[in-house]
Write a structure and sequence with these properties.
mainly beta; 64% strand; 428 residues; 18-stranded parallel β-sheet; elongated; 19-stranded parallel β-sheet
Length: 428
Amino acid sequence: MKKQFLAVASVISVGVFVTSMAFAGGNTSTTTQSGTGQMSTITQAGDFNDATVDQSDAYNNSNIDQDGASNFADVDQMGDIFDPGNDSNITQSGEGHEATVGQDGYNNVSDVSQMDDGNLASVSQTDGYNASDVDQDGFANSASVAQGGDTVDPGNDSFVNQLGVVNTANVVQDGYNNDSVVNQDGELNEANVTQEDGESFSDVYQTNVGNLANVHQSGELFDTLPPSNRSYISQTGESSEANVTQNGAENQSFVDQSGLAQLANVTQLDKANWADIDQEGEVNEANVNQSGDPDELSIPSNLAFVNQTGGAVLNLANINQVGQLNEATIDQNGKEVNDGFITQWGQSNLAFVDQNSDENIGEINQGHEGMDCMSCDATIEQNDDGGHDALINQEGDGHLAMTTQNGGGNISAVSQSGSGNVSMVTQN
């Protein structure tokens, strides 16, 4: 969303400019202005509209346009006498809308547009150069945006677009140059985004019914990297949940869920971690927990990929990586109960689990009994028609273990320690 900056060239001296028009009905308009170069425009049509504007200091601009019944708008702005003021634009049409905008600082921009029945928008911006755009069309949607910018660095951007019925978006930004995008269409969807420190980006897209997205991003200043975390969530099914927590720098996560009752949890600490979760079907669950090494400059730190596809009764994948330059991939598809589990410690480890159907479990644990595994490689591949089970435990350095199982009631367990050991098991 492009930031906008207020320029009121036509007002060049201390003064107040107010335009207030009220048409048929019991409309009420109250405008209080003090300071320099304020501008307020209010247009109301319909019944029971109420608009209140309070502007002080310098060069604030407020524009309220309400059409319908029982709309309410409240704008409170405080600019800085040495810098451009704040800009607020509220347009409400239909019945029962409510919008509240409070801006404290300078060069903040708020745009609220609500069309049909009963939407609620609340925007609070402090310090400087924050931009908020809330667009709601439907019934009983609610959007809350709270931004705290920085007086030196660029502020925060928030964009909320909601269609449908009873959708909720809550955005809290505290810091500088954070960017949040929330798009929701459907019923009873909820998005909660909290961004702290600076340079974080969050994109939440939800459709259908009853999806929940929670994003918490907190940057951490490193000498060589900006605290820029990236989160992308797309949920298009029903009753799915995505929880993303990123704390550090240059972390990225992608969550894409379509289906029923899916759950994805991503937690990334330190820096330069990458997580990608793609789930389609019923009752899939994926958990990724990664922690990089803040003392090293290697990029990327850890990579995690989970792909669970349709027709699943329950697929479960759990990836936990500590250290740096570890890579884990779990790909599960089919029916019945597939599991996964990859846990890696140390550095430069690879793990791969591929399971298709029929009661596969699979588990790779590199780093065992408190000992790290360095540059170890483990592969488990299990396919159809069997009650498969495979377990690989490695500790030491440079191990390779491969297990492939097809059909029957296969069980395989491999544990390696020391250095440079190779194990291959194939069961059909």
